[in-house]
Amino acid sequence: MHQTFDAALGINLLHANQTGADHNRAHFDQWGITCCNIMSSPGAGKTSLLEATLQHLSLKLKMAVIEGDMTTELDANRLRQYGVPVIAINTGRSCHLDAQMVAGGLDQFSEHYHPADFDLVLVENVGNLVCPAEFEVGEHYKVALLSVTEGEDKPLKYPIMFREADCLLITKTDLAPYVDADLERIISNVREINPDVAIFPVSAKTGAGLGDWFGWLEQVAPRPVLSKS
After folding, report:
1. What pTM, to 2 d.p., does this model score?
2. CB 89 within 8 A of CB 68
3. pLDDT for 11-65, tens place per residue?
4. Which long-range contacts (CB under 8 A, 24 or more apart) does 156-164 make?
5. Choices 3.40.50.300, 3.40.50.2300, 3.40.1190.10, 3.40.50.150: CATH for 5-220
6. Where do the domains of the chain lie?
7. H or E stretch covering 89
């Protein structure tokens, strides 16, 4: 059975991207940096989560952010106020970051900073529940966000994102009573797709559950906390 042209093209694109992702990961490994690829649909709270993360952990871990958006630097500017390097990448019509785009961001990063001095790079991917999960960027960990406002069935309808995730944050839990969201149902649906994923219900607004997320990040960071002068 012959593949269609579109199927063959998709396989070739993914193969080429994987080669680039492996190259990026080799750089991260050489520098001693852990990279987390943060993914979700638009509006699930990625930037708000990063704001809380940078505010809480920037004195413990030396972090940088690669910020992906189709247009504008609005989110990047929100994060720059926390005093960490933020490399903005506009993807234009592309609905995800790919390895080549992130490689360009790493070139900018290494021109202005000494990467080996850093512990953690957080990549905020473009808001999309499909493509970001298929195109690796060189990350060591995939982090998915799912807002309680999106519905309990999203893990079943968009399984690739949740199957690939190493960590899942159920966000905006403060809104759960107002949208009749059943957290246990959400968790059950996620576990059906990915039994081993770490799950943290959180609210960036109230701070509920964020300590578990911060602890997970400190655990996956490659160096002991407070190792930097």
Report:
1. 0.91
2. yes
3. 567 788 999 999 999 999 999 999 999 999 999 999 999 999 999 999 999 999 9
4. 156/189, 156/192, 156/193, 158/129, 158/130, 159/193, 160/130, 160/133, 160/134, 161/39, 161/129, 161/130, 161/132, 161/133, 162/190, 162/193, 162/194, 162/197, 163/193, 163/194, 164/133, 164/194
5. 3.40.50.300
6. 5-220
7. strand 86-90
